[in-house]
Design goal:
- By secondary structure, this protein is mostly beta strands.
- The protein has one domain (28-155): Calycin beta-barrel core domain (Lipocalin, Beta Barrel).
- 13% of the residues lie in helices and 54% in strands.
- It has one helix at residues 2-22, and strands at 38-44, 47-53, 60-69, 72-84, 87-94, 100-108, 111-115, 124-130, 133-142, 145-155.
- It has a ten-stranded antiparallel β-barrel with strand order 1-2-3-4-5-6-7-8-9-10.
- The longest helix has 21 residues, at 2-22.
- The protein is globular, with a radius of gyration of 21 Å.
Length: 160
């Protein structure tokens, strides 16, 4: 009888620990992404880049990006991160198109990964801090291959 009780206890303990391991962690709050807030700039291959993120407020972060080549804007994007159905969602609107949602799938100190596997390209948007710099990477399929693009911005002040 004791062996059955011991086996049952072990089985219950193993069952409860395996259920606990498979549980999805609690969703991150918008405040956990405050490290992205600020004005950032960079230059790559003659492209002057600016990325600006407002601090979390009202349950959202709002941002924008601009690329300038030889004094002329060649690209821009509006974006925001907000809570939707208990999850953080990054909404990307390059060149003013309707926003495309990317759901937060991974987060940690100074790192956030957003994904939308149904989107053509990109399917993942990754932000992280590298020292004082803000970095970003997009990745996904293009022409049958997985490709990525990466950026690095340094802190910058807004100029009048």
């Amino acid at each position: 009888m004791r062996s059955h009780v011991a086996l049952l206890t072990v089985a219950l303990l193993l069952g409860s620990s395996s259920r606990g391991a498979s549980q999805v962690p609690a969703p991150a709050s918008i405040e956990t992404l405050a490290w992205m807030a600020g004005s950032w700039s960079g230059n790559s291959g003659g492209v002057e880049m600016e990325e600006h993120w407002m601090a979390p407020k009202g349950g959202a972060m709002v941002g924008m990006h601009r690329d300038v080549v030889k004094g002329r804007m060649v690209s821009f994007e509006f974006f925001r991160i907000e809570q939707q159905n208990g999850r953080l969602v990054y909404l990307s609107s390059p060149k003013g198109i309707p926003p495309v949602p990317f759901t937060l799938v991974e987060s940690g100190p100074m790192r956030a990964v957003f994904a939308n596997p149904a989107h053509d390209f990109p399917q993942r948007i990754i932000y992280w801090k590298d020292g004082a710099d803000l970095r970003a990477k997009i990745e996904g399929p293009k022409n049958g291959k997985t490709v990525s693009e990466e950026w690095r911005w340094v802190p910058s002040g807004l100029k009048p």
